[in-house]
């Protein structure tokens, strides 16, 4: 109770306005900070105590590092690219600050499997702090749950806004970080092609919370379809799962879904097993990046397991139905949207020269040429036309390879004494980033997958189907270096194969 | 594509209005149903097909069972009481229909452990359909995700409204079920004592989604407290976890929380370990139902592990602070409210004679005496004063014992041919329900718990503390008959004891 009395005792000392005043005086001239503070302290901040002399909220991340200190690498994002560079970066050279709305990396290729419970959500998410332990250990390394709002490359600063996790009681709060090296790995966002109603009514499949929403909605619809008084039509609508987009994600999700229906639904929801259907809508060929033979195999397997493949272009998405270009109405109970990705709001807002497709333009060393110490990797970047190189596909494979390359490059720069801001101008960077496509993989349900090992779409090369390729597909992920949850996955894997 | 063309083909046949019309004509005169349908079909229902002759939405659950059919037992709720009776009921005698907003039973005594990741959410939730498999197997047995709104005991019917899982795209929908036997096991709701702001700002600890919200908020606050520019005061506020209510739940949660701080926070959030604190606020003694010695032991253990025990009465709850009766302000980042339970909205709405405390009044056989074929068990019921028996405490132990008793009673009635509505008037029911208190248990952190084996508060009897009692505490749950997830729990258990 001593502690309690003491903090009650001081609760009469200083009012929040005076605190705000004090901090504003101390703060560097920065419109962003003043906004943030006024906004911040306007919420009832009531935990008052006499401020200690060292109580200076603007020490640390907001000011540039001294030559005597470790240079600070700021990473925007925690996807494949961002997590790979954080894993590889030498934390004896750099302090690492990760700014991302998500404190974990999502193991996207396995996301579809979590929607129907084949894998558990925990199994495919890895905390940033365990990918790079320095983040919770080193005094100068942090993870900050925030979005980057404004880049100030002249002053080597990023202005960020905290996430609120949809908490009504929490106001977002802006803050600033100075960087020596900035790595933009903020990814892309699901593209809706400006089709009306997609964001309101469809669920994407890019984050764990998407998979959770899909699972919740699927189960709720299954339960609701038992409710007495429900018409046949309504029952069929509720249990009609529509997937738009025939890329790997859409195909894999359709496969998982039809497996789920054939196994679990027939077992646990016997009442409605004849009402539930899966439809996959694609404007062109499904899996267009794959070899013809594989495409036909996938088509055969999906159709065999009850997935309806529909060639069509979505014109409008409404509350309970999709309208196709030819006017056809497709009623749905669950709508999953996976038609690829496009530039995110941050990418669009940046004033740097862009690559074809509107991504952040980078040179062969993944630098943004027009500014110092800023790099971009993963889905958010693309080679500038001046490099004469094609924009790479938005694949985990590409993102991770870029993260690995840039990690080594920055380690080399750091060792060479170029870690601090503007210290790497004259440095020799060595070989540029070169991407070799190792092939594509996709699963079309348990024990069935496609492995396309051709180096490019035109080139000849090995392509596998069936159990072997499915095994390769799973193995490729079970052997990830930093997927701590492997055991859990192996567990689910064995359960799936019926070995446990 | 054949299927697709066919359902497109018919999509021009019947308009939803005419469907509505058709069904309304078929429906029995019931304001509830008409409301439900108009409400329901007013949403764009577009999956049209020529109705098959047997397409009658009001066959089945809405009409009373024929003497040739199995009698229908409707259970409202899926907690300890409801799940126990569903497990024990003889499904060769009865069809079982469970109406509950929750399709799983929550293993409440272990809920506190899931907030900090000691146990996983899945480990403490068991689907109703696996507790009573007939629900997914038998043609006449169902689980329906809904709330009971109105009881019509004259016609042996319940009027229900479906849950929408907060889906904006889903409108709740009303329907009716006829019952032969009705078991009200709808539980109680967290009591706020009418204190302003509790429901807006505090989190209860009664459902899995509560535990998820607590975990999410705790982690978010931990991450946010690293954000640069945050004042010392604000940091302390964000990381101040306040628990109101010193009953077993409040005490167990405080214990888990302090363990989490001592272990995980010191390891993973080293930056803020000195800022995070737990305060437990209770108006009287903590664990008042326990033996003095146990209470003192709990107090000592909690204080030792850093929990601040505060004697106080909450007057008002605001966005970021609590006001106590004596005017003291307690700022908080996380507020958990566990001050016991009171009658739910449904219980309050029912016009039956109530027991002291406003619960549904039952006789010694757990019947509602004023009506036929309606029973109440668990936290929602209490003995009528006329029985001369005291109202039993709202404990899992009581609820489960009542479920077991009533299960046997209804099986006996069913075997005796009294299963259908109004057929058990003259039957001999045998011995009434008698409750013997087997003792109370609570944990105060890893390896520390209290076991109070006295038969009543006054009586002498065995009382244990420390590891042994903690082991008993865990074992009591690890050996649950129908907790399929035991393996997972044992896993977590072994991890906790450091044996795996």
From TrEMBL, chains A, B:
Q: What's the chief localization of this chain?
A: mitochondrion
- A single Gene Ontology molecular function, please? NADH dehydrogenase (quinone) (non-electrogenic) activity
**Where in the cell is the protein located?**
Mitochondrion inner membrane
The UniProt catalytic activity note for this protein reads:
a ubiquinone + NADH + H(+) = a ubiquinol + NAD(+); a quinone + NADH + H(+) = a quinol + NAD(+)
Q: Gene Ontology cellular component?
A: mitochondrial inner membrane
Known EC number: 1.6.5.9
Question: What keywords tag this UniProt record?
Answer: FAD, Flavoprotein, Membrane, Mitochondrion, Mitochondrion inner membrane, NAD, NADP, Oxidoreductase, Peroxisome, Transit peptide
Report how it sits in the membrane.
Peripheral membrane protein
Does the record bear Ligase in its keywords?
no
Q: Which ranges carry the FAD/NAD(P)-binding domain?
A: 72-403
Q: What is this protein called?
A: NADH:ubiquinone reductase (non-electrogenic)
What organism does the record attribute this protein to? Protea cynaroides
